[in-house]
Design a protein that fits this description.
The protein contains 1 helix and 11 strands.
Length: 230
């Protein structure tokens, strides 16, 4: 537990360090995260996200991310996938980014609280406004905990209200677009409701601290999310 707290504090420190000379924004994100098991060992990951520009002015980003998952056991799984990110601005052509990504996920329980650690490596093929394409590799570390707000009648959390806490650190490990190792940090706190063992709804606040080449960005985000598991 102490290790988890230290990792969380370290990520938060990185976030605070990235806020000097910062532009503040307010955005809205909507997301659907889905996992589908084909068999005991194989399955599908899919998420779809829509993200607004500052002050909800327009839809700035659409993200589509499918992947193939191999379940090593009940606590470990690995996924390889593809992602397409479409970025739009009024008066300009839309830009796209394609990603190949690999991830390793560890899940376990601390008492009755489920914990998730995710390590993701991305190969990013970025379309730029000047017409040139750029390549970069990025490493992401994600930690999430879902805490039920009422006592459960079964060992597994199957229904009811919960609080979700997560943090994710992004590090550019090759060809840094901003000229720095640290890319961004996302700290998220949400309230949600588990409708049944296969579906969660949640809404919360996400703080995205982005390290820019010249000016940093602090994005205050209201996010709504649907999680489905089949």
């Amino acid at each position: 537990m102490k290790k988890h707290i230290l990792l969380f504090l370290a990520a938060t420190t990185l976030s605070l360090a990235a806020t000097a000379q910062t532009v503040n924004q307010q955005s809205g994100w909507a997301a659907w995260f889905h996992s589908q098991k084909f068999s005991k060992k194989t399955g599908l990951h899919f998420d779809f996200q829509v993200r607004s520009a500052d002050d909800l002015a327009y839809v700035r980003n659409i993200l589509i991310r499918p992947g193939f998952t191999y379940f090593i056991n009940d606590k470990l799984n690995a996924t390889v996938g593809y992602a397409l990110i479409i970025s739009d601005q009024p008066g300009a052509d839309a830009l796209t980014e394609s990603r190949i990504w690999e991830q390793f996920v560890v899940t376990y329980k601390l008492g009755k609280i489920p914990l998730t650690h995710r390590f993701r490596l991305e190969q990013r093929f970025i379309n730029q406004a000047n017409g040139d394409d750029a390549f970069s590799q990025r490493l992401r570390y994600f930690f999430r905990s879902v805490i039920p707000l009422q006592k459960q009648s079964t060992p597994a959390f199957s229904k009811g209200a919960f609080v979700a806490l997560q943090n994710e650190v992004f590090l550019s490990i090759q060809n840094q677009p901003n000229g720095h190792l640290f890319d961004q940090n996302r700290l998220y706190l949400a309230a949600g409701y588990r409708l049944n063992p296969k579906m969660d709804l949640e809404a919360g606040y996400l703080n995205q601290s982005i390290k820019g080449a010249v000016v940093n960005t602090n994005n205050n985000i209201f996010q709504v999310a649907l999680y489905t598991r089949f």
